User: What shape does this take?
Amino acid sequence: MRLTKRAFLIVIGVLLWASPAQAESLDKLVKRADMIYRGKSSAAVMTMEVKTKRFDRSYKIVAWDDARRGDRTLIKILGPAAWRGHGTLKIGEQLKLFDPKTDRIQVVGHSMLGSSWMGSHFTNDDLVKETRLARDYNLALVKKWEAPAAVGGNATYYRIAMTPKPTAPVAWGKIVYELWENDKTIAPKSATYYRKAGDGTPARTITFSKIKKLGGRWLPTTMTITVTSKPGEHTKLVYTKLRLNVDIPRDKFTEQALRH
Assistant: This one.
């Protein structure tokens, strides 16, 4: 059977998309973009604005992250006063939430990773990055193109389809992830989440915007999440300070630190 030129090019394209070399390249790209806010360790100050039909709320947040002694994250609410002291602690695969009003620490199972964090549209998983995109999903290149970027002139853009690996404890059936890179930086552009791989309508979308230099890196300082079933609502997370590869005391990632 003879192939037309068009059919031949399609076959070659499919083979290239499925090649191990490209899969490894996509893994590296996604890992770098997914971890742009984190070094070997990091300390960050953020604001979070939550807009729903029932309330508008703003928080000031401080977060520490350390991958040098295992995967550890501590997030604390600094204000307003009504919410001060609420915290989230992650050590390895264990996630704990602290409510100062009840003085109670709750251990979060995998089933709660998709639950709302502090009434926002972000989940527990979003905030502590339990899910690693390059680790937990199979990646396939959908589109690659050149276009202007926020810094550094033109950039190479990638649209990547992600489907869960068989044993990955993840909540989403498919993610369409867009990122870009040039000689200045690599950064996520958007992530569109689908409950099931065959769904035509996404459940939610996260967009990354307002590129600034923080912690010595050019990165999107604003993440905005919208939920398809909740039009008019959003949560916006803005990085105001970021330090990378800082020395964080070991006792920062303890229940005592979570409580105080």
Remarks:
- DSSP finds five helices and 13 strands in the chain.
